[in-house]
Amino acid sequence: xxxxxxxxxxxxxxxxxxxxxxxxxxxxxxxxxxxxxxxxxxxxxxxxxxxxxxxxxxxxxxxxxxxxxxxxxxxxxxxxxxxxxxxxxxxxxxxx
Length: 96
Prior knowledge:
Organism: Niallia circulans
Radius of gyration: 15 Å
Pfam families: HNH_5 (PF14279)
Distance between the termini: 40 Å
Strand content: 5-15%
CATH topology: DNA Binding (I), subunit A
Number of domains: 1
Helix content: 40-55%
Order of helices and strands: HHEEHH
Shape: globular
Protein name: HNH nuclease domain-containing protein
Largest sheet: 2 strands, antiparallel
Structural class: mainly alpha
CATH architecture: Orthogonal Bundle
InterPro entries: HNH_5, HNH_nuc, NA-targeting_endonuclease
Number of strands: 2
């Protein structure tokens, strides 16, 4: 147990409380599911990540409205691809 505590302290020492709160808010808003494929870690062997709808490289912000929950596989597959208008509408409607 000491090793786990030490690991978590080292890994999370650089992460601000605000950032952790923001991540939790996004995961919670998206029901802890990937907005693209619907997978969640309890039902599938996957890891959830925070994904930019409009990638930062293409001018997207770090604001909550531009961030969604994505599984590791979908996030990697999307890369810096820009969603078309219809795709964005589908993703945003899943939040309601």
